[in-house]
Design brief:
Blueprint: E1 10-19, E2 32-37, E3 42-47, E4 53-57, E5 73-77, E6 87-96, E7 102-109, E8 114-118, E9 124-128
Antiparallel strand pairs: 1-2, 1-5, 1-6, 2-3, 3-4, 6-7, 7-8, 8-9
Length: 133
């Protein structure tokens, strides 16, 4: 699934993919997020080892194949992401690094809410509520 084809898809849930051994760290962030679509299917956003943003077809409710061993990984809700505030994707903005590699994506939803996923040493996910502009 290409990012450009995401407009008009409806996000019904966003799940974080967490590595359990890091879960004891209260500041642990998800290694990836999975966008679950009303229309069927899902999409994973995660960091590559080269700090680029990887976009992969999801296998919801199965964990991605790279989550190995599987018993050390889990899905969890992502703090600050509420499915009630999401919905249909209106626009997708991509940011590339100086080499032309994808490093950030911003998903803009009907009603004005946004999710920004950025790669780096770890995945950074930011939710901007419509009422906060």
């Amino acid at each position: 699934m290409r990012l450009d084809s995401l407009t008009d898809y409806t996000v019904v849930a966003v799940k974080g993919i967490y590595y359990l051994p890091e879960e004891s760290d209260a500041t642990a962030s998800p290694e990836a997020i999975e966008l679950i679509f009303k229309e069927s299917g899902s999409l994973d956003l995660t960091c590559g080892t080269d700090w680029t943003l990887r976009i992969e077809k999801g296998d919801w409710p199965e964990l991605p194949k790279w989550c190995y061993p599987p018993d050390e990984w889990t899905y969890r809700d992502v703090p600050a992401l509420s499915s009630e505030t999401l919905g249909k994707i209106n626009a997708v903005e991509k940011q590339l690094n100086e080499y032309g590699d994808l490093v950030q994506v911003e998903l803009q939803f009907e009603g004005g809410s946004r999710i920004v996923a950025a790669s780096g040493e770890s995945l950074t996910v930011t939710f901007i509520s419509a009422d906060k502009g």
